[in-house]
Amino acid sequence: MIKATLDDWAQLYRHAIRLKNLRPWESLSFLDTISIKMPDRDEMYYVSIDENPELISIHILRDSSAYARFIKPFLKPDYTHEEVFNDICSVDIFTMCIGNRENVPKNQYNLIKELGLSFRGRMNWVFFLSKRKCYAPADPDKIEVMLLTECIEQICHAIEDYNTNKIDVRFDDGFALCRYYDDDEKRWMTIEKQVPIVNAQSDYYKYENELQIQRIKKIPYSGASFDIDITFVESKIKDTQFERDPVVRLLILSNRNSGEILETRIILPNDDLAEMTFDAVFSAIGKVGRPGKIHYTKDICEELLDDFCSKTGIHLFKEGRLPSIDHFLFSMMFD
After folding, report:
1. How far is 155 from 39, CA to CA, in rounded Å?
2. 3 state SS of 305
3. pTM of this structure
4. Could you give the angle at which helices 142-164 and 6-22 cross, rounded to 10 degrees?
5. Which end of the chain has fewer CB atoms < 10 Å from its terminal CB, N or C?
6. What is the pLDDT along the chain (335 residues), one digit of tens a residue?
């Protein structure tokens, strides 16, 4: 990982302070989408502004599917904190934050001082977070600082155009405030535009170990059902093999009938998720026998197990909650 230079940070802070002074959260809500299309680049960046009493966050996501996943829980009337956390941990997010002194990471506090900047009072300190898929938030590296700089510069222009030119954007009808470079006119434009927000295609795992399939099919049904969950929890792992701290991700498998936890695994970013999932399922079957049903809550479980279950005569069911696993997670976090 290459660290940004002091000059890189100075340019980023120059645009970020300008954006802070524009106070875009006063005219735009969380689901009012800003899109940024850089010249000579295929991807479109999506921006979401989140204001709460303790922190203002201006999130930048690098493609449509990541943005769709990021906002998905907030489109449900009954979304849970766990759903939000799991979806956030599943995408890359680059964030400009405005908060209090105690929110600022130590390294960035030192940078602020080195740059000669001064933020006084509450909800006035500017800092930045890089949240890579499966990893805890960290200081942005050089490439990410450059990405934040160019995006925030264009967000500033978009907000200024939106306010000055009174651009009418039908956010509720799927339109975005779009900032893009017009190759024909050789200039930047800010317009209302309907932009694609496309959910990532599900990637179903094809299970092709025919020998193992036949072995499972020969095991009698036990009368038991399994619950399975693959979930991120709000803790991180210190491990020198990684440049950043991974968020703890757990695979948990329980006996739905008795509530007994049969298998647990900690999944690291470089682990083979499918291999670990089937290892846990086979181990549980070895203890209890073949289940008639496996219940799950998250789409990733369906994507991994659907083909295997259809080939081994096990029914797969989506549930709202998995009580025994919920109890296990609660006990783990608070006992």
Report:
1. 15
2. helix
3. 0.89
4. 20
5. C
6. 799 999 999 999 999 999 999 999 999 999 899 999 998 888 899 999 999 999 999 999 988 888 988 888 777 777 788 888 998 999 999 999 999 999 999 999 999 999 999 998 899 999 999 999 999 999 999 999 999 999 999 999 999 999 999 999 999 888 999 999 998 889 999 999 988 776 666 789 999 999 999 999 999 999 999 999 999 999 999 988 999 999 999 999 999 999 999 999 999 999 999 999 999 999 999 999 999 999 999 999 999 999 999 999 999 999 989 999 999 998 887 65
Strand-pair category, 225-236 with 187-194: unpaired
Tell me the two tokens of residue 132. Answer: 């890579």
Q: What is the CA radius of gyration of the chain?
A: 23
Q: Which residues pair with 98 in a beta bridge?
A: 56, 126
User: Which residue in the block uniquely carries the two structure tokens 């290892």?
Assistant: 279
In angstroms, rounded to a whole number, what is the distance separating the alpha carbons of residues 46 and 60? Answer: 6
Domains along the chain with CATH numbers? 6-194 (no CATH), 210-334 (3.30.420)
Spatial CA neighbour of 288 closest among 254, 332, 237: 254
The phi, psi pair for 44, rounded to 5°, reads: -110, 135
Q: Is the dihedral of CA 92, 97, 37, 28 positive or negative?
A: positive
- Which residues, 6+ apart, have CB-to-CB distance to 68 below 8 Å? 197, 198, 199, 200
- Closest residue by Cα to residue 57 from 25, 94, 24, 96: 96
